[in-house]
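Journal club side-thread
Mid-discussion, someone asked how the predicted structure for our own chain would compare to the paper's figures. Pasting it here so we can look after the session.
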Amino acid sequence: MTQAIKSPDLSIVHLWAPWCSNCQAELKNGGWLKMVKDNPQVKFYFVSVWNDGGDGKSMLSKFQIADQPNVTILADPGPRRGDSKIKQFAGMPLSWIPTTWIYKGGDLRYALNYGEVRFDVLRQFIEDSKSEWSHKGEPKLTE
């Protein structure tokens, strides 16, 4: 996963679980399918966590996400509960799902860490992440 997010392309890592009601709500409203289809140049990684090693592919298939060409489905092998459940992923703390991170060139551009994605916000974050975030040539502010 760490190699994938270092790609110069935009990558979205979505940490979720099929049993999670917030994660299910995101799927039911069709937002993820639309987001994936509207952004074919973006790589989407649906990483099932806290699901005892299950990848959730069957649920993603129900919502036509699993077979999209820009989607990769992964699973953390760890348990759902207890002290040994995953508490960090790709060097970032993980305390809630769904969690969605946007990367470009290995840099974390945005992190939505506590709850359901508002897809209009995610859409804006994707657009913003396409920029170079450079202010070269702009006048500096005086102190």
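Post-session note: Helices lie at 2-5, 21-28, 31-38, 57-62, 119-129.
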